Amino acid sequence: PESVLQPLSACWCLRQTERMPNLQIQYSEKYWDDVYEYRHVILPRDVASHVPRGRLMSEDEWRSLGVQQSRGWEHYAIHKPEPHILLFRRELKKSPNPPPGAVIPGQ
Known about the structure:
Layout: E1 5-7, E2 13-16, E3 26-28, E4 31-32, E5 36-42, H1 45-48, H2 59-64, E6 74-78, E7 85-91
Antiparallel strand pairs: 1-2, 2-3, 3-5, 4-5, 5-7, 6-7
C-alpha cells in the first residue's frame, strides 16, 4: 500500500494506507499516554453513513466497514461533531521505555 502524508490540521498528519474504488480510509499516526496507545481513523462520508449512531462498535463491526489494524484495538469514544472520525485505543504492554518515536503528552 502507498503511504502519503497529508496535513489534516496543525497538529495531525495522516498516512493513507488503504486505496479501494470510492474508498479512502485514513489512519493517524499512533500516540501514547501512560496506559494506552491511541489512533484515530477517518472514514469517507459514504462509509461513515454505516456507522451506528449513539454507541461504540465491536471489532467485527469496524472491520466490516473496511478498517484494518492489528488485534487489540477498541473503539473507545464517539466524537459527536465528527462521527466519521473513529477513536481507537489499546492498552500498552508494560515496558520500561516508551516505543521509539512515541509522542507522550506533557513531555
